[in-house]
Design brief:
Layout: H1 2-22, H2 27-31, E1 37-41, H3 43-60, E2 65-66, H4 68-71, H5 78-88, E3 91-96, H6 104-115, E4 119-125, H7 142-156, E5 161-163, H8 170-190
Parallel strand pairs: 1-2, 1-3, 3-4, 4-5
Helix pairs in contact: 1-8, 3-8, 6-7
Amino acid sequence: MQRYSSAAMKMMNFHRNFLALQTPTNPSHAANKACDVFINHRGIDTKRTIASLLYDRLSRLDLQPFLDNKNMKPGDKLFDNIDNAIKNCKVGVAVFSPNYCKSYFCLHELALFMETKKKIIPIFCDVNPSQLAVVDDGKVPAKDLQRLRFALEEAKYTVGLTFDSLKGNLSDVVTNASEIVIESLMEMERQ
């Protein structure tokens, strides 16, 4: 119990200081404010579970997470908005799941994280890293295959969290991921 209180106090102090630095002086700047955390995920597997719960938790901690269905509206250009959010975020959370590698969008986002050298926090949800592979089904341009494969290999060899939906507690993985995000942001602020 004491550990949680200490962690909560650290988070509150960090948020207070972080928000003081983030307060825009120009109201038009508020609309263009960079997100703190980009949540990369495969919607059909994790949008209604880990991705949304993590978004809500980070939002309640007064951070600025990005989740496509929460931050985008009809008419927004997918690649423009998502690429801009990734390039301007501070840290990324990649939620890997059984159908993750079937999505060009997921892999494109992951590759952009790697190319911009963002810190990535992987969550392996109902999948082992060794099970993840880019499949050449003819739908992805050949020039992109190498880029996507490289990004996926980098992510597979990054220490992350694991979650088995049949055995694990969803609340625990969301709490752990949130704490790691906070620690990462605090570390970046100190540098």
